[in-house]
Amino acid sequence: MSWSASGPSSADDVRHADAGQSGGLRAPLDGGAEPVQAAVVPVPVPVPVAPAPAPVAAPLGAPTAPPVASDSTAPPVSVVPPPAVHSDAPAATPAAPPTGDAMQTDPIATPAPAAAAPIPHGTGLVYDVRMMLHTTPAPGETHPEQPARIERIYTLLEQNGCVARMIRIPAREALRSEVELVHEPSLWDEFETTVRMPFEELVEYSRQLEVRASLYLNEYSTISARFSCGSVIEMCHAVANRRVRNGFALVRPPGHHAEPNCGTGFCLYNNVAVAATSVLANSPANDPVRRILIVDWDVHHGNGTQRAFWDNPNVLYVSLHRYENGTYYPGTTYGNYDRVGGPAALGKSLNIPWPCGGMGDADYLHAFQRCILPVAYEFAPDMVIISAGFDAAEGDMLGGCHVSPAGYAHLTHHLAALANGRLVVALEGGYNLDAIANSALAVTRVLLDEPLPVLPAGLASSTAGADAVARTVRAQAPYWRSLAVEQAYTPPSGPSHTAGDVLAAQRSAALWSAHRMVSLPPVPTEHIVANQVACSATLMTQGLETLLVFVHDNGTVQLDDAILPGEYAHEPAMYMSDSSEFVAKWASERGFACADMNTRASLPVRSLRNQDRDRALPRANEAELKSQLGAQLLYLWDNFFALSPAKHIVLVAHGTACDAIVHLISRRVVQDRVVAMIQLMGYNPIPLVPKQRQELKTWYYKNSLVVCPHNHPLYAWDEQSASGKRLGHTVRAREPHAANLVQAAWPEVEAFIDTKLKTRRSVHV
Questions:
Q1: Stated pTM of the model
Q2: Catalytic position from the list 16, 134, 237, 257
């Protein structure tokens, strides 16, 4: 993908850069591109804060080595001339990485550690303009990972008096021996070859690298990368040695996508992984750092960092990121909630994969309170490192999330309470210049012990966000006592309402409020909640073209922690996770009438054996329950749906209710009006149409879509020919959880419905 002065070459490039869907941006292994910067919306600079008196060293970022005059191939950086280029020969390696206060001014020289008095309340800052030398090699090209990212943050920190109150940690270059704590030697050699590469060859190599690994290089990129990695190392050692209490490493290029054997996704070396490994190996004997917590809140999964510590029980890696079933960048399943760590470190990789964009402060705070903080306190780290990408910030159009500067401040505040305050913030991604600057300012103010900004009242996590957190909790519960769920419960002795009754009333009110769906009269059968058959007011309207009937069971009831206005108390909250609102909204947008039938019944899930898959005997009460479910739908069909003037009817069933719609078509002649029937299965046997109805079997196979979770018992068999057309047209979904199947499979469902409606309309023309 090439970048021009105005940004990406096409709108499609913008849409696919992050998702890893463009063939030119898919990297080997798990690496890839960070998002393209959206158009910057100017944000007013906050009112400067009067700096507290403190001794200040020379200006941050001032060159500490004599510069060399630039040549014609130098990047357009006017702040400082390019530094001298190093030999790529291995540098002499000290026994331990330098961490002393008395850093030499020459960044190339190996500094000697020196003792320093602890500064219990100091906040460090490392920043150097030489990290701005990394730019695109060809003149006139622009890129979202641009030098202005760190410049804008530093300027805003300076304007608000933060820089004057912070303690300088000198920047330096990482040594080869330090980089190789995480990366293979071949990676260092590959990058060092670009230092003296002819300009035309470098431009072509960079273009190939961008296609292969979403990475660009100029002749100074490896210098900037060494400074970025070395600066994070220095800051982490400064905090580990308690020269400062906490600190901000204002660095670029970022690092969390870099794999052991390759740089990807704008990342050359994995700054945080190298620094954490160095600290674990070289922390002070009298105050050791044995366990490190890394929290990666970049909007992309930090595949490289997770891989570096996959089997390390001393590092807890936590990532909150957009996932979208593995389609969002870096485009693998490595960041799913069930990736919990290697055999020696189970539970030490904790992923919260957001299923979509739009996550905001409430979702992130809920994840912290429900999952991350309980695990973090149980892990009891000696040090915390934040991989602070700000591409989930409000205003980053490609990140597509809504975390505010105040939200980032509160997240930082929670983490600052761990490890006796040993906290390092290291910059990762984020490409809206104003968004990252204001977010970094809010985080820095927390490090400096300024009061927290006030969050708006009424915060509540989204259903999608709460579901994602709940899945992670379930996956991590076997490894953390703090996430264990107590099973014992004693029901109250007095009169009470069941959760189903309460949630049914809530659901009915929600459908009325959002879609003006009204309740039909109660169905005179068991196993259905009163007022839980809702339909559009247009059900009996003349001229209605299409009616969608959605039949499902009671959904998934979850008990979770809610974020309440003004406090972070762990307060139990119950909510329903079903698909009624999703389906009703889709039908309304298409101009369809919608009828929603919610049953309370739930059939037992059972596994089938090969020999009885086609003739499995029902368990106790199962046949009776299926008959009751079928009777409910027959009553509604005879008294309401069949009487509707709708020309076309679409039947959609989820879970238990799939038996009901097969029961309906087996006992009523529906072929003239039902154009499509969709079954989104759970793990029960797929219902079969009667053997003796050959014409029904043919119609059913042609007009049905049966979507099964990928691990449904059906797919344990080598073939399904014994049932033939009686099974309908089956499709194996990628989604393993039946509760999520409606949303996950809806693109296929939508296409199927559209095809059948188009065919039926063409016949009637």
A1: 0.56
A2: 257
